[in-house]
Amino acid sequence: MEPSPALAARRTGRPLSFDRDAALVSAMHLFWRHGYEATSIAELTRAMGITPPSLYAAFGNKRRLFLEAVDLYLGGLEAVEQSIADAASAHDAARDLLVAAVIGDTGSDTPPGCLLASSLVTSSEEADAVRETLAEIRRGIEAALRARIEQDVGSGLLPVDTNAEALAGHVFAVVQGMSTLAKDGAGRSKLMGIVDTAMAGWPRAA
To answer: How much is the average pLDDT of 190-194?
Structure first.
C-alpha cells in the first residue's frame, strides 16, 4: 500500500517552503466563497500557491485545513466564548456577537456572508462529519451566550421569567439571517439596522 501524501512529506523532514499563515488565509477565503464540499484540492492548491503534497504535509487533509480556516475566521472558539463570559452584560455580549457578524458579513476584501453558514454541505460521510463539527461550534457559542443570559437573570439584570434558551437562539437566528441577506447583497448599514431592531426587543429588568 502506498503511503499517504502527508506521511510521505513528513518522512522527508523538509521544512515548509511557503508562508503557512498566508496560505491558510487564501484557503479560508476560498472555503468562504464556495463552501467546503464545492472547493476542490486543485482549487485550494492553486489559490494557496502550493502543491498537493505541501498541502497534506502542512495541514493533513482538506477537512483539517477547513477546520483550521474556521478557527482562523472565529479568532479561536475559546476566545469567542471567553469574550461572552467577560462582557459587562448578556446584552453587551449579544450585541457584540451581532456587530461582529455584520462586520464579517460585509468586509470589503472578503466574500459576503458568514463562513460557517456558507460552508453548509450536502450529504456524504465526510460532509456529515464537517456539518456536525460546524453545528458543534455554533452550539458551543450559543451555549456560552445562554449561560451569560442565565447569569444576568440570577443577578437581576434580566427578568426572572426570561427564556435564556429562546433568547440566545433568537440572537443566532438573526446572525444566520443576516448572513443570507449579505450574500443577497445587503450592505452594512442595512444589517446594522437589523441589529438595532433586534436589540431593541431585549428584555429588561423591572
So the answer is: 98
The verdict on residue 137 lying in a domain is yes
pTM for this structure?
Answer: 0.84
R_g over Cα of the chain: 20
Q: How remote is the C-alpha of 26 from its chain's centroid?
A: 16
Mean pLDDT, rounded, of the chain: 88
Q: How far is the C-alpha of 114 from the C-alpha of 175, rounded, in Å?
A: 9
Asked which of 70, 102, 121 is the last residue of a domain, the reply is 70
Residue whose grid cell is 450574500: 183
Q: What is the pLDDT of residues 14-53, one digit of tens each?
A: 456 789 999 999 999 999 999 888 899 999 999 999 999 9
* Domain span including residue 156: 75-200
Instruction: List, in order, residues 6 or more apart from 61 with CB less than 8 Å away.
Output: 6
